[in-house]
Amino acid sequence: MKKYRSFALAAAFSLILDQLSKGYIDTHFAIGESHRVIENFFHITYVRNPGAAFGMLADSGFRLPFFLAISSIAIIGILWYSRRLAADKQWQLTALGLILSGAVGNMIDRLRFGEVIDFLDAHWYSHHWPAFNVADSAICIGVGIMLLCTWHEEKQRKQQPTP
């Protein structure tokens, strides 16, 4: 269906990029290996994250079933919500495709390895942001687009004259 074209393209492109990049890192880097891209700002550093964002729940015994359940619920929710959106909501559908690809990409890692491959290492000198991956980026970009769309719709609603 034409309605889902942007959703499917965003999801497919992002998921393929995520899996190819993680596959490359896993086969060409040793865990902990790092290569400078931009001095004091950005490295490619291979790490494995058994937890959630920022390593939360990394030491929990129930983490894998918990993350797989949360990912499954998120995927079902995204698919359900995308069906409810009108065909003219292409930016929201694209955003949902990005979020879906991120959830699926990290879920694939958890199923394969029990943890997620991260490698994008942004930092300012010795102050590091936790490493992340393409799936994490897709989720953040998708959520950002959804927030912008919501803000834009609310702004337009407030500008409409009241009867």
List the helices and strands and how they pair.
Elements: H1 5-28, E1 34-38, E2 42-49, H2 63-84, H3 90-113, E3 116-124, E4 127-128, H4 134-159
Antiparallel strand pairs: 1-2, 2-3, 3-4
Brief description of this entry?
This protein has 163 residues and is α+β, with helices and mostly antiparallel strands. It contains 4 helices and 4 strands, in the order αββααββα. α2 packs antiparallel against α3.
Question: How does this model look, in words?
Answer:
With 163 residues, the protein is of the alpha+beta class. The chain has one domain. It is 59% helix and 15% strand. The protein has four helices and four strands, in the order αββααββα. The chain has helices at 5-28, 63-84, 90-113, 134-159; strands at residues 34-38, 42-49, 116-124, 127-128. It has a four-stranded antiparallel β-sheet. Helix 1 packs parallel to helix 3. The longest helix has 26 residues, at 134-159. It starts with a helix and ends with a helix. The model has no long low-confidence stretch (mean pLDDT 91).
